[in-house]
């Protein structure tokens, strides 16, 4: 019998694609990359255009080294608006890096950045990859020698400061982008001033620290944010995903969700990165176990999944009172987590 005839005789049952996707994600998590790939392909036979199946297949292509297939699928998904654009973009640029297409990464990310800011939870990774790609492609926009560079005028610094206080999110991110073309010593006084002002946006302060880290600034800077104070050398700051808070929380989430619901675990990890980015370079003010339980609960709530709070508190070994207190604290800051 011909392969096409066999495909035509596949009868899609309600929920069959979802089950295949869930099984595929479990296999991918266990390291059974090729088997997971087959699960995603079969899911797409049942339901072409299934968002989670498409994204799972993209991950499987990347993990199995099928980079050309992954590249083509990611481009198709972005063109046809299948899945979350930035999550697909994140995998796409990592595949381009594996293929050594660094100039393509620079062109792609700069084009995206010109249209809209990166999502806060992904901004650090995108900026780091953009800088690496510029370096690898030998097209990184290095600051011009001092004698050839128009000095930053006091009026320009004042305009930038005004934008940081009163501008919109896109204006602020564009200003950070413009600062990257300057000599660090020209803008360092302004950045230090804002990093030491607790009234500044916490997320914007984090992006300023990433800029100083990219410049490998070793001089200590004083940071005041969210009731915390401290002195840091930007060059030695660890990425968010290398922080003790991220490692510990991700281990709890892996234990609770890694086997049964890897999609929900991924969602909770994105919420975790968002809150750690908000507090960066400080750890969150909430205890990590009840915070992780709250993020599990929040991810489930956003996904429309009913959850039993008592079951969640048992999974993370926290009391109901601890959970409720941290949930209350989280609800207070949640509306401002993405404010720049």
From TrEMBL:
Note the superkingdom of the native organism: Bacteria
Kindly give the SUPFAM superfamilies that the UniProt entry links to this protein. Hypothetical protein MPN330, TPR-like
Which InterPro entries does this one have? TPR-like_helical_dom_sf
Q: What is this protein called?
A: Uncharacterized protein
């Amino acid at each position: 019998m011909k392969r096409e005839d066999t495909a035509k005789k596949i009868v899609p049952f309600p929920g069959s694609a979802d089950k295949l996707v869930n099984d595929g994600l479990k296999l991918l998590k266990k390291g059974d990359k090729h088997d997971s790939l087959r699960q995603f392909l079969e899911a797409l036979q049942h339901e072409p255009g299934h968002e989670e199946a498409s994204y799972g297949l993209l991950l499987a292509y990347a993990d199995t080294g099928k980079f050309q297939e992954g590249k083509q699928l990611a481009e198709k998904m972005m063109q046809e608006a299948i899945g979350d654009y930035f999550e697909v973009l994140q995998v796409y640029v990592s595949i381009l890096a594996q293929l050594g297409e660094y100039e393509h990464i620079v062109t792609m990310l700069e084009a995206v950045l010109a249209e809209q800011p990166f999502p806060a939870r992904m901004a650090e990774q995108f900026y780091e990859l953009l800088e690496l790609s510029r370096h690898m492609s030998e097209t990184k926009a290095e600051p011009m020698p001092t004698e050839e560079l128009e000095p930053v005028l006091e009026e320009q610094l004042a305009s930038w400061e005004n934008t940081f206080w009163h501008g919109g999110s896109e204006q602020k991110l564009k200003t950070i982008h413009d600062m990257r073309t300057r000599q660090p010593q020209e803008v360092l006084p302004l950045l230090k001033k804002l990093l030491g002002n607790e009234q500044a946006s916490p997320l914007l302060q984090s992006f300023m620290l990433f800029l100083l880290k990219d410049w490998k600034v070793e001089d200590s800077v004083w940071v005041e944010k969210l009731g915390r104070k401290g002195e840091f050398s930007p060059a030695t700051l660890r990425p968010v995903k290398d922080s003790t808070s991220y490692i510990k929380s991700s281990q709890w989430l892996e234990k609770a969700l890694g086997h049964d619901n890897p999609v929900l675990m991924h969602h909770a990890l994105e919420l975790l990165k968002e809150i750690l980015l908000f507090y960066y370079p400080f750890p969150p003010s909430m205890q990590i176990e009840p915070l992780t339980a709250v993020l599990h609960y929040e991810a489930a709530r956003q996904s429309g999944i009913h959850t039993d709070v008592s079951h969640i508190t048992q999974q993370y070994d926290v009391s109901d009172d601890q959970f409720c207190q941290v949930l209350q604290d989280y609800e207070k800051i949640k509306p401002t987590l993405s404010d720049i």
